[in-house]
Amino acid sequence: MLPLDDYVPYLLNRAGARIAVSFSEAVRPMGVTLPMWRALAALTDRDGQTVGELSSRTSIEISTLSRVLDGLQRRKLVERKRAEDDARVVTLRLTPAGRTMVRRVMPIAERYERVAIAGLSSRDVATLKRLLRALYANMDGLAPRP
Amino acid sequence: MLPLDDYVPYLLNRAGARIAVSFSEAVRPMGVTLPMWRALAALTDRDGQTVGELSSRTSIEISTLSRVLDGLQRRKLVERKRAEDDARVVTLRLTPAGRTMVRRVMPIAERYERVAIAGLSSRDVATLKRLLRALYANMDGLAPRP
DNA sequence: GGCATATATTTGCATTTGCAAATATATGCC
DNA sequence: GGCATATATTTGCAAATGCAAATATATGCC
Lengths: 146, 146
Description:
homodimer; mainly alpha; Arc Repressor Mutant, subunit A; two-stranded antiparallel sheet; globular; DNA-binding
């Protein structure tokens, strides 16, 4: 039997959790949480996503995301608007303040990326990203059925 | 600026969270949660650890772990005992029922390991483990100061 | 057009979490 | 030995989470 710290799922969660805790602490002074940052970053990638799209993209559970959006909206970083073509969906847009916040937090995110991969060759980094995507995809079939 | 899904911290959390959710679901019928399983597995590696040791080893926050242990003790899978030499610490031991539970859950854990790394060469798996350990170590300096 | 069914989002509620305070014991110093 | 300080664990409490139910809107069929 493998010791706990030879299991990929454990190693993965352990590393992920540590980075998450550390990054959260770093951005707290700016008044954003990690899920908030994920939402802001994903909206920077593509503005005007719906709540459902953003949920898939960020892997934030949709009811949790709804409340994260409450916070972002209250702080006027994000705008919610019922879509014109399909009023079941709500589209999300960064406000100018939201974009400013992204510009302020981005350097921290980049610093954490750099710290995380410090000492790894760029080849290693490429491999790591590839493997993490593969792992995620591998779990597709086993995810809770909708 | 990188899109969200090129950031290592994001890829890491995403993959880790998906495996965690899926595994949790798989072991729920046996009445164990993921943190419970981690504790049981770590105690299988080495019996008689203290609560603090187990907390570091599993990366479960110590007050959370204390409550996880409440559950494991209530279900008679783990025994708590004040250490004889230093009565500040509590040592933890698997009961026979605890060992039985480990034997029952182990195949599921092994299946998840296999599914996670499906399609990866054994070289890739070795690389992945090495990189995940490196990442974890890299965050050492940035972790919240004690 | 009106009703039944489908999809998207939010809200209610119970559970889990983590920090900080409380408790228990140990060690060092007088 | 007794008190001050240090270490280990548990408990109180508030915040975050996820599931399921409630709400809002759409679509298909008659």
